[in-house]
Amino acid sequence: MEHDAERVTRELAGKLSTRARHVCVLLGAGASVAAGLPTIAELEKLVEAALPEDLQVLYAAQRPGRNLEQTLSRIRKIRNLLDPGETLGGMDVNQARRLDSAICSAVTEAVDATGRDVSAFTYLASWAGRMETHRPIEIFTVNYDLLIEAGLEEVGVPYFDGFVGGVKGRFAPELIEPSEGRPETRLPVGFVRLWKLHGSTNWKSTTINSRTEVVRTARAGGDAVAIYPSDEKYDDSRRLPFVALMDRFRRALVEPETLTLVCGYSWGDEHLNEMLFDAAQRHPRSEIVALCFGVVPPAVAQRAASTRNLMALSPEQGIIDGQLGTWISGADIPGVFESGRYLLGDFARTSAFLARQVGIDELSA
Fold first, then answer.
1. Span 2-37+118-356: which CATH code?
2. Range of lowest pLDDT (10-14, 52-56, 326-330)
3. What residues have CB less than 8 Å from 273, skipping those under 6 apart?
4. Cβ contacts of residue 1 below 8 Å, gap of 6+?
5. Coil, strand, or helix at residue 327?
6. Domain range annotation of the chain
């Protein structure tokens, strides 16, 4: 079977332009690569190289069979279990604490947005800021860098990330759900919602009125909180931001007439995957478009084959209305379909495509 790239693109643009639609975007690490940040594999190497020699040995002992986020989760579990004088996994509590802090510092440095080319995120922000929809644009991300914030602020788009305040912004769950809270406290539709599902490099743990809370600070650095998925997200002192934001993601996916674009995401988080797949299966009026940089991940391909409102678009083929097919080699669509390849799995091209939907062909100098 063959799919017509021009027709698919035209229909996608039409859906994005419908004011009654609820539009969401989910971004993964592949989006940040567009700004020159490392891939997950590259990040793992950078983190290990940045650790002091004694911590490299401890880090390597926890690594077999685990990726970076799983390793960090294990280190935090060990840290929380140990009493002074006890050891586990070759570490005592002080070593586990040092290793945790060193990893967080290495990650924060590796994903620093300072001096990066944020043009792709500026295109994203320009699109989100100019969209005139009945419901707010919602950007979800599993990334912990500050590239989305940099793009939004570069363009001057108002946004809300769940925290109120600039120096030590405190989490405001009553403002997360549009149906909750007093009418006078509800945010305008024109405010883009930015939800960082796995935390951020400028989130920190601090004590306020004898309570430990997660706050959002003015800059990245220091003791970052849960920059990777971890059981710590469900500790009493840290659960509020993560549980509330995950719940917002779940609710957003199932709102009627929701279109969710997924780009730069590796589909490696089973919890998020199930929420996406469940929304597509149980809510036929919600639609999910997986934009793949490479081949369609097997889990997505399997679900898309049996779920008509889950579409997967990759350079070589697409799964549309449950049908797997290659692309018809017709006229090129600049930035979208070139030389027989569908290119929107590249976030730089996706963001430029979105910007064109609101009349922006080039960014102002």
1. 3.40.50.1220
2. 326-330
3. 267, 299
4. 323, 324, 325, 326
5. strand
6. 2-37+118-356, 40-110
